[in-house]
């Protein structure tokens, strides 16, 4: 039976903590019998729970007392400890990340009394790295060297066995043929038709609710009608439990979203084709992280379906990070943007603004609702000459928030520099010009009429021909 009992009491148990904060409180010790405490250790840190192997990290540790406690005493020891900046508190399906203050009385020849109290930590911005190395299970350099020696010794052993045993050699050859065939079908054959395909992301880092955008570039070696081009965004919890032969991987899909970028698209040999894509990340607190054998990962999987031929597939890792927390008013406009909007609203000739500058401001503010509203107030109704790249025509019946024409259509396009996504509302008289679309340029005059918040696109209405 323990000779003392510990209790951790936080000063503000309901508070949400951020990077740079400190958690304070006291450890109460109720002594039942005289006991010698070698050290009363109090530490802050995090710990994973759930299906995967446990990982933990320590943020700060102090020794609050060392000495003898007398029977019947009730003592309290205050503490103030740093809060970890990463990872944030997370309660998922297979993975849980908790932060806590732990107290432990180290007593010789007895079980150490322990106590713990959890507190919540919220992310306050993108971490320097989404991978946090746990304090336990660190591998030293000499162990890595030993592993390398064993590996090369194993290769030498296998080489000798293969020479001495033709049966094993035959099995290895069959395995090599199967693996080579799989690689040829999966990776080489699609390139025989499509040539080199590049998947270029505007940025592999994004915050929840922001868009993931980029382009697929391909230079086909022959004419081919593609069945479909699709993009799939998947978020997963991946937890590994056990080790060796008992190792098991647990996966849980958090979110998945599939979007068809093109259907029945013909590409021509020698012509570089670009297929833009953009869709929005869901609102989530499942940020990308890796804590030992536990991780949350987001993947963008691209697929080009080729008729009667192996499909081209490619995956890109997406780092989902928390939005930057600011102590100042959220959505505040920087002075440069504010001055630019004042220029937009000016009446004198020197206050005129080009569409290039307007597009730059909208592109910079595309994730900030307040900045977008201020920009729209400044430029809505203004008409600009512009040149854009047409992407695809939408099924539009003319009732899209009264922004377009009753007899018109909607077309997705993008500005060149910066690559601002746009929605063009086209009058019926110009419908034939947009009948055959796909990465061609359009020049003309259009009026800014709003912002498509669902697809994060600037909405403009083309002028009717005179």
Explain this structure to me?
By secondary structure, this protein is of the alpha+beta class. The protein folds into three domains: 4-124, Immunoglobulin-like; 125-325, Immunoglobulin-like (Sandwich), CATH 2.60.40.640; 335-462, OB fold (Dihydrolipoamide Acetyltransferase, E2P) (Beta Barrel). It is built from five helices and 24 strands. Strands 10, 12, 14, 15, 17, 18 and 19 form a seven-stranded mixed beta sheet that branches. Strands 2, 4, 5, 7, 8 and 9 form a six-stranded mixed beta sheet that branches. Strand 8 (95-106) and strand 9 form a beta hairpin. Helix 1 crosses helix 2 (166-194) and helix 3 (335-345) packs parallel to helix 5 (369-379). The termini are far apart. Mean pLDDT is 79; it is low at 130-142, 327-340 and 342-351.
**Main sheet attributes: strand count, strand direction, barrel closure:** 7 strands, mixed
Which CATH class of the largest domain?
A: Mainly Beta
Distance between the termini: 95 Å
Query: What is the number of helical segments per DSSP (H or I, 4+ residues)?
Result: 5
Q: List the helices and strands in order.
A: EEEEEEEEEEHHEEEEEEEEEHHHEEEEE
The total strand number stands at 24
Mean pLDDT: 79
CATH architecture assignment name of the largest domain: Sandwich
Low-pLDDT stretches: 130-142, 327-340, 342-351
Keywords: Membrane, Transmembrane, Transmembrane helix
Pfam family, one: Spo0M
Protein name: Arrestin-like N-terminal domain-containing protein
Organism: Crateriforma conspicua
């Amino acid at each position: 039976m323990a000779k003392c009992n510990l209790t951790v009491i936080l000063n503000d148990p309901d508070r949400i903590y951020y990077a740079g904060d400190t958690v304070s409180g006291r450890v109460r010790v109720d002594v039942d019998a005289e006991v010698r405490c070698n050290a009363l250790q109090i530490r802050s840190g995090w710990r994973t729970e759930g299906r995967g192997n446990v990982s933990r990290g320590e943020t700060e540790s102090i020794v609050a007392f060392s000495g003898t406690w007398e029977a019947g005493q009730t003592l309290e020891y205050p503490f103030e400890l740093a809060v970890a900046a990463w990872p944030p508190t997370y309660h998922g399906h297979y993975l849980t990340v908790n932060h806590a203050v732990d107290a432990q009385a180290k007593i010789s020849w007895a079980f150490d009394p322990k106590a713990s109290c959890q507190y919540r930590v919220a992310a306050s911005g993108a971490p320097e790295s989404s991978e946090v190395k746990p304090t336990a299970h660190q591998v030293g350099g000499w162990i890595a060297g030993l592993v390398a020696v064993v590996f090369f010794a194993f290769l030498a052993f296998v080489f000798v066995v293969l020479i001495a045993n033709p049966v094993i050699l035959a099995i290895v050859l069959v395995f090599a043929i199967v693996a080579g065939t799989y690689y040829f079908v999966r990776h080489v054959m699609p390139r025989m038709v499509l040539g080199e395909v590049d998947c270029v992301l505007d940025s592999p880092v994004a915050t929840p609710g922001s868009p993931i955008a980029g382009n697929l570039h391909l230079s086909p070696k022959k004419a081919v009608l593609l069945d479909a081009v699709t993009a799939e965004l998947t978020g997963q919890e991946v937890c590994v439990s056990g080790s060796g032969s008992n190792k098991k991987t647990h996966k849980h899909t958090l979110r998945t979203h599939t979007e068809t970028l093109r259907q029945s698209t013909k590409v021509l040999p020698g012509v570089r084709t670009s297929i833009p894509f953009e869709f929005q990340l869901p609102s989530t607190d499942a940020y990308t992280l890796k804590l030992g054998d536990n991780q949350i990962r987001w993947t963008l999987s691209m697929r080009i379906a080729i008729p009667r031929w192996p499909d081209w597939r490619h995956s890109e890792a997406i780092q989902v990070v928390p939005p930057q927390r600011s102590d100042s008013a959220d959505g505040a406009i920087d002075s440069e943007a504010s001055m630019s909007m004042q220029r937009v609203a000016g009446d004198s000739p020197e206050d005129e603004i080009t569409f290039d500058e307007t597009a730059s401001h909208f592109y910079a503010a595309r994730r900030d609702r307040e900045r977008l509203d201020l920009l729209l107030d400044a430029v809505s109704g203004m008409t600009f000459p512009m040149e854009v790249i047409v992407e695809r025509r939408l099924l539009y019946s003319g009732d899209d928030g009264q922004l377009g024409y009753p007899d018109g259509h909607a077309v997705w396009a993008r500005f060149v520099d910066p690559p601002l996504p746009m929605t063009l509302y086209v009058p019926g008289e110009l419908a034939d010009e947009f009948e055959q679309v796909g990465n061609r340029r359009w020049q003309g005059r259009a009026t800014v009429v709003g912002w498509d918040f669902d697809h994060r696109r600037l909405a403009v209405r083309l002028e009717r021909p005179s």
